[in-house]
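Lecture 7, part B: from sequences to assemblies.

Below are the input chains for today's worked example.
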Amino acid sequence: METETQKTEARPGAKPAGKREQTKVQNRQTILEAARQVFADLGYGATTVRDIIRATPLASGTFYNYFKSKEEVFQAIHDESALRIRPRLKEERAKARTIEEFISGMFLTFFEFVVGDEDNFRAIQRNTDTLRVRMDTPEVVAGFDELREDLEKAIDQGVFPPVDADYMMAMLVGVAFEMAERMLRRDDHDIETAATFATALFMGGVRNLPHRKVTAVNGGPA
Amino acid sequence: METETQKTEARPGAKPAGKREQTKVQNRQTILEAARQVFADLGYGATTVRDIIRATPLASGTFYNYFKSKEEVFQAIHDESALRIRPRLKEERAKARTIEEFISGMFLTFFEFVVGDEDNFRAIQRNTDTLRVRMDTPEVVAGFDELREDLEKAIDQGVFPPVDADYMMAMLVGVAFEMAERMLRRDDHDIETAATFATALFMGGVRNLPHRKVTAVNGGPA
DNA sequence: CAGAAAAGTTGACGTTGTGTCACGAGTTGA
DNA sequence: TCAACTCGTGACACAACGTCAACTTTTCTG
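Predicted structure of the full complex, as structure tokens:
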């Protein structure tokens, strides 16, 4: 037994960390991890709550102590994802001194995130009762709000031309997600090239785009 | 599955149009219509096959004479949609003499289609198990292939700069769908403005976008 | 035009998945 | 050490699924 683990004046930042609290956190994480995996494998629609449970050592009833439905785990995964990528995106935007930096930073960061944890993105992206869910969770909403604010700030500061933030966001998000999906679908992990293309579109339109992507590159990204 | 009736001598071009054949077509249409409605209302994930049936005068078993699952009706709706919009898009592309015409034609046509039959788009878009249009139903696949061909042809003819067709498609599709969704979400039916923005992006990037400020709708979903 | 064959409809039924709950094992704190 | 409490457990009641044998309607045949 961990007789050691008494709740003596614990470390400052640490949690209460009773044994109880500890397994609770663990279980939640276990379920989330299993769900991510199963969703990525079977697709959201095809997986049952029991599939998720079966991928853990837990009993069926336990699931419902942590999430009240399949949809809720899904949202949790979503939320966690947003939580992870938000600061990265925000930092990137803060660093940006020009529109180009702003935009390319966003794309690169996003693509890195997607390719860096493919299963995670597959889990939330390949399936879903779609946008409704994507937009609902607090972290996700906060992330979009943040982007919008920064966009408007950049516009005010003259870094960005005075475009409509709504349309702008739709375009950024649309391109980002569609390209990400396409990359995963084709097992294309070349995030630099993808970001280069996307950025070029926003910087100067079609005429500005690099020429055909040479798959086995010799020239490298323009 | 289409066991053509082994009639000794059916009319040549016309439909067989026996009473039987007729109600068969009717029933299929009834179910499709009901499904479109219910999907649009409840969302794909939340609707049950019984919900669809209940919205028709038919019995539960009958559903399965026409579609083998909820997913299959969904695909059928998808397919039908693609069937309807494909020729319109193709025609638009054929008419185009410049890149700008090509692009703005696509956006306008698509937005018209979406706003013109909102329920239909809601049914297939707001829900789904594979994100976006990517149900690989024949008509949908054909539609994308067509677009790609036309794109490549335009590139060969020098109307389009020699961009990578893959990326190009991802960008077009991404922007089109995301903007469409956003419009429906905000009850914004101004397809001209939307098309203008999207086209401007593709023609000259952010700096080229109209400076119009629009509705000060609050950020956030719904 | 009757009667048989074919095609289609129907709803009850076996099956699978969902979410709850009473119980008991494990943990905490005195 | 023991009472109080928390959480894990799996059986259960309920909901939706998809099938199928019986039945109805249409079509075919003589």
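Note for the exam: Chain A touches chain B through 57 residues (CB under 8 Å). Keep this in mind when comparing with the next example.
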